[in-house]
Design brief:
two-stranded antiparallel ribbon; about 40% helix; alpha/beta; about 25% strand; about 325 residues; eight-stranded mixed β-sheet
Length: about 325
């Protein structure tokens, strides 16, 4: 029978994910020669060739991919075993580490933690703010137990290493200067703003989300200003420098910005409401841990409250925030 060494299998899986021996060594705090030795030993114990030369690099053989398909099942089972043991030893106690992007923290994570403090006081939740893509990376490396990310940066539902839970389709409303001619336009559509100067990030998920929403409405937005911080975007809109899409969750988190004189009109785009999709991800098998399951349930509850929270009246008119 082949010798399935868990430590060496983890090294092989990391090599599959990162692509090079050097990157694998850095991620696992090993030397490249140690990585090569471990994988040579694994190949010998399994009786198959795992790596083959590909130019100046190496690539996984078909046998290596077959081994990794079984390894994913083994790792998931080990996560379930850890979850069962944790439940036996700690019950409702323990610590769950959550990584979440900025607007998810006040809108989803904080309400979930407050509810858990009331109902499960023995369960501790530690929070680490991270960009949407970085939250998934923290999960993959084991630095957090649960990652809140955007669907575009989360593991796909088919990824065997992770369990993904859909939390919320977060609507994107449009922020205009309060005195803008379209601020009170009935039935405002995103396409009506095609000729406006836009404010959004120069790169990253918010740049992609804004441009994709506008392209779906039939135009490419002209980026007048680049900013990633919501307070900065809000202040520029209030100053009349452009328009911007604002996630509903940012408003739930109490977004306000300093400004003088003018305000911001926030409009719901009822006819073509763009959305961004918020998901939670955990390492497959670990979702059965009692603490993690409790946190997921609390996050679902917070997401349900957020989904029903209105930001405008039924007539879809603007909500204006005045600063200064």
């Amino acid at each position: 029978m082949a010798d399935w060494d868990i430590k060496k299998l983890r090294i092989l899986r990391t090599l599959q994910e990162l692509g090079t021996v050097t990157a694998t060594a850095e991620a696992l705090h090993m030397t490249p020669s140690a990585v090569s030795q471990q994988l040579t030993g694994l190949a010998k114990s399994l009786g198959v060739t795992l790596l083959e030369a590909h130019g100046r690099r190496v690539r996984l053989t078909g046998a290596a991919h077959l081994v990794l398909r079984h390894a994913d099942a083994v790792f998931a089972q080990l996560e379930r075993a850890d979850a069962d043991l944790l439940g036996y030893l700690q019950g409702e106690a323990g610590t769950v580490r959550v990584g979440a992007f900025s607007t998810a923290v006040p809108a989803l994570v904080v309400p979930a933690v407050q509810e858990l403090r009331r109902t499960r006081p023995g369960l501790a939740v530690t929070v680490r703010e991270a960009e949407a893509e970085a939250a998934y990376e923290l999960l993959a490396e084991g630095s957090v137990d649960l990652a809140l990310s955007l669907a575009a940066h989360a593991p796909t539902p088919r990824d065997p290493k992770f369990t993904r839970v859909e939390l919320l389709a977060d609507p994107l409303d449009v922020a205009l200067p309060a005195g803008h001619p379209l601020a009170a336009e009935p039935g405002l559509r995103l396409a009506d703003l095609a000729g406006e100067p836009w404010i959004f990030g120069s790169s990253g998920p918010w740049s992609h989300i804004t441009t994709a929403a506008c392209e779906n409405a039939g135009f490419v937005p002209e980026q007048a200003h680049a900013a990633a911080d919501w307070s900065a975007i809000w202040a520029m809109v209030a100053a009349g420098m452009g328009v911007a899409l604002v996630p509903r969750m940012a408003m739930a988190g109490g977004l306000r910005a300093p400004g003088h004189g003018t305000g911001v009109a926030l409009r719901v785009l009822h006819a073509d409401q763009p959305r961004r999709h918020v998901v939670a991800a955990a390492r497959r098998g670990s979702e059965g841990a009692p603490g993690l399951a409790r946190v997921l349930a609390a996050l679902r509850q917070a997401a349900a409250v957020q989904a029903t929270a209105g930001r405008t009246g039924s007539d879809g008119g603007p909500v204006t925030f005045q600063f200064g």
